[in-house]
Fold MBL fold metallo-hydrolase.
Amino acid sequence: MRLTHFGHACVRVQDGDRVLVIDPGTFSDAQAALSGATAVLVSHEHPDHIDVEALKAARADNPALTVHTHAALAEELGEGATAAAAGETFTAAGFTVKAVGGVHAEVIDGLPGCPNLGFIVDGLYHPGDSLFVPTDEVDTLLVPAAGPWVKIGEAITFVRGVRPARAFPIHDIQLSKVGLEYFDEWLEEETEYARIPVGESVDL
């Protein structure tokens, strides 16, 4: 299974002709990520996790493209979108996916207060905008590195709670080069950890 990072929170999972994209947002190269995809997982509705126009274009090119997200966003997206709920297991692009979590991490005063689904795809966990620790075994964790709702100590606690075999950072566009290096230094102490440069891939 090949994992490719398309920037910020967007990754592509591919195994042969099975192609699944998670969170193709406006801060990533969503168009490239969606090219040839057969299914898409969207954690929540914030633009850095879903580029609606890029998704519409991809569905125009491939009407069979399916989108899986929480119920409110699925209704908003309309045809081709399927609602998922925390605790449910389903198949997308031939991969077994479990939806977990359910709520976006709080920034302050209960905000943003919107749904957020994390997705476990054959042992790969993408939490969206949350630090939800699932009870499921996780081989590979995509750990959020920056945002108004997360700090380094919380990211470390998240990694310790999940206990993955390996971890890669995502959600990092707000960090400078120095910030990226600083985050990496902390996380390297916790688990097998590496950064996937944008546009590059690793085999899991």
